[in-house]
Amino acid sequence: xxxxxxxxxxxVGCTWSVDEPQIKASDIFAFFQESFTPAKYFSIDRVFRNExxxxxxxxxxxxxxxxxxxxxxxxxxxxxxxxxxxKKLGQSLPNG
Length: 96
Description:
alpha+beta; 2 strands
């Protein structure tokens, strides 16, 4: 979260620096205490790794990342979300 020319970045009133982080966890906590909106963000992207190829590892693969933010969420909510995700892909998890 930093000021940048990209529209997707969030401006929290500080400048970004490679040398020293400008935002502390306490800053983020305080920011979301003032204006918090539950949100879900997911990304499915092709990822490239700079490693030697072998029979079981290619230079690229797909990776899924996600962030769910809301008050009162528990590990049970995360487990249910993951089970639902795989169910919609036509897969099932053990004990699910």
